[in-house]
Design brief:
This protein is of the alpha+beta class. The protein has 3 domains: about 90 residues, Arc Repressor Mutant, subunit A (Orthogonal Bundle); about 250 residues, Aspartate Aminotransferase, domain 2, CATH 3.40.640; about 120 residues, Aspartate Aminotransferase, domain 1, CATH 3.90.1150.10. It contains 17 helices and 17 strands. The chain has an 8-stranded mixed sheet, with helices on both faces. Strands 14-15-17-16 form a 4-stranded antiparallel sheet, covered by helices on one side. Strands 3-5-4 form a 3-stranded antiparallel sheet. β11, α12 and β12 form a beta-alpha-beta unit. The radius of gyration is 32 Å and the shape is elongated.
Length: about 525
């Protein structure tokens, strides 16, 4: 049995000597045991407020312990707020304990007639921003749930290659990986992006025009804050990308919804609604969520309007790599560069890209390509936001691109997505024939599903909303198209992602969705009168 030592309770002239028991067999250090004993006595009131303690020298002698042990315990309690010192007088128990300081103040009754609350509240912009929920349901598991959109094929990513490249960066010690980096990005990565994007998307730029960001979302946020003043009108696609809408609200923009049809954003309607807009945000290669491609005629009209109005155009090159039929258009940025070269004038297009959909989302690396006149401003804004992305990750990505792994992965994943695209059509015909009609698609990793049933029993609620709610009970993530709109759509549908699903999961998900739709149909049927 461990021997316990007890200090003798005395009240020496220099202050009170508390009774302290220590256990030499305990795993806790002696100073921690003394700290706990004193803390408990203060909280319990055995050492009352204002009590002066004996000096650490006296305590050490009386308890037979090292003075260093006593000093360590007392300093800990001083830092925690249970003891205080008075110059020239000694150490005392505080008058108000830390626990009492942390208790909320008693709520006073409001005076008659009412008065304005002084509780902190969100700003007007903050309330508008919090109303735009851009994330889906928070899941406790990372297992892919049908039919969550914007999820890439993580199961086919070359993880071993990536892990080898990341380890390789750290095996060779480089001081620069531990220091602050260039806010514009790791130079070899900017070079690799410029070379790749020039071949793959026809973008014309120099490496200095590439700014590396924490995904596309940070690129949007930085660019919006730099080119939009609070209250400026900005065109957005309707339906459109919720993340863009949220970032624009964060920048204080006056958002102008512009309808999207089979040829992309309706430029003529945008001019009618807001000819003096400061900015237009478009996804010309594969519009989210409709899947439309901006036609050549509208591309020309959009750039002509931007030059005439002195406006910017931000190109979100979403899902441009995954096209299954026909040759994709070059990036809108290329059209802009060609126009400047032929007719002069200023560049109007700011290009945004990301590796979240082509590699994996948690990498948090994206980029924007801006005219030379904006490079310093964007780099400085990046420095203010979060300085730079981890340099070792940027170096690994630069090697992944330069060594050809990125191009090989894109070729492989394009075939995988085409297989899953075909599986969606096959299993939906099999399980949901007559319930859901899939819209034609030529690219991307999601589809729009149109429901035969137009309305649910709830007044003003579309069947798509009712189905999305019923699908959640089947462990599915299905969003209604109206989630992405500011104006009520004529027809609501379902946004169905398939990029992260194997054909087997697609088949099981189609059967589960059929059950959810069947429940909504049965609930909608009128009950027979008695």
């Amino acid at each position: 049995m461990a021997r316990k030592r007890h200090g003798r309770p005395r009240r020496p002239p220099g202050g009170q000597l508390p009774l302290i028991a220590t256990d030499s067999g305990s795993d806790l250090p002696l100073y921690e045991q003394i700290c706990r004993e004193l803390r408990e006595q203060v909280i319990a009131g055995r050492l009352r407020a204002g009590t002066r303690l004996a000096s650490t020298r006296t305590l050490a002698v009386e308890l037979g312990l090292s003075r260093f042990t006593l000093v360590s315990a007392v300093e800990r309690l001083l830092a925690e707020g249970y003891l205080t010192t008075r110059r020239g007088s000694g150490t005392f128990v505080v008058d108000i304990l830390p626990e009492q300081r942390m208790r909320p103040a008693a709520v006073r009754p409001k005076p008659a007639g009412g008065s304005r609350s002084t509780a902190p509240t969100l700003s007007t912009r903050g309330r508008a921003l919090s109303a735009v929920v851009i994330t889906g349901p928070r899941l406790e598991t990372n297992e892919p749930r049908p039919f969550r959109p914007r999820r890439p094929a993580l199961d086919v990513f070359p993880l071993r290659v990536w892990a080898r490249l990341v380890r390789g960066q750290w095996k060779t010690y480089r001081h620069q990986y531990l220091d602050y980096g260039d806010p514009a990005g790791y130079r070899p990565l900017r070079q690799a992006i410029a070379e790749h994007i020039g071949v793959a998307r026809g973008v014309r730029c120099e490496p200095d025009q590439v700014i590396v960001t924490s995904g596309a979302q940070q690129a949007f946020d930085l660019l919006f804050r730099l080119v939009v003043d609070p209250g400026d009108k900005v065109w957005i696609e309707d339906p459109g990308y919720l993340d863009v809408r949220g970032a624009l609200i964060g920048a204080g923009a006056n958002v102008v919804p512009v309808p999207v049809d089979a040829d992309g954003i309706d430029v003529a309607e945008g001019i009618r609604r807001a000819p003096d807009a400061r900015l237009a945000v478009v996804s010309p290669s594969h519009q989210y969520p409709t899947g439309a491609t901006l036609s050549a005629a509208r591309r020309g009209a959009l750039l002509e309007w931007a030059r005439h109005a002195g406006a910017w155009v931000i190109e979100d090159d979403y899902d441009s790599y995954f096209r299954y039929r026909g040759r994709p258009f070059s990036a809108l940025q290329r059209f802009d560069e060609d126009g400047v070269a032929a007719h002069g004038g200023d560049r109007r297009v700011l290009y945004v890209g990301t590796f979240s959909k082509t590699m994996f989302p948690s990498l948090r690396l994206g980029f924007c390509i801006v005219p030379p006149t904006l490079v310093d401003a964007v780099a400085n804004a990046r420095a203010i936001a979060d300085r730079n992305s981890p340099i070792a990750d940027q170096a690994a990505l630069a090697a992944f691109i330069a060594d050809g792994h990125y191009d090989r992965h894109l070729r492989r994943v394009r075939l995988v997505y085409q297989e899953r695209h075909d599986a969606m059509r096959f299993y939906f015909r099999k399980a949901l024939d007559g319930m859901v009609s899939l819209a034609p698609t030529m690219a991307g990793t999601h589809m729009i599903g149109w429901l035969r049933q137009a309305r649910s029993r709830r007044a003003g609620e579309s069947a798509a909303i009712a189905v999305s709610r019923a699908a959640a009970a089947e462990n599915l993530v299905v969003f209604p198209l109206s989630r992405y709109t500011l104006e009520q759509p004529r027809h609501d549908g379902l946004v169905l992602g398939y990029g992260g699903l194997t054909p087997r999961r697609i088949a099981a998900g189609a059967e589960s969705l059929a059950r959810a739709i069947d429940r909504v149909r049965r609930a909608r049927q009128p009950r027979p009168r008695p």
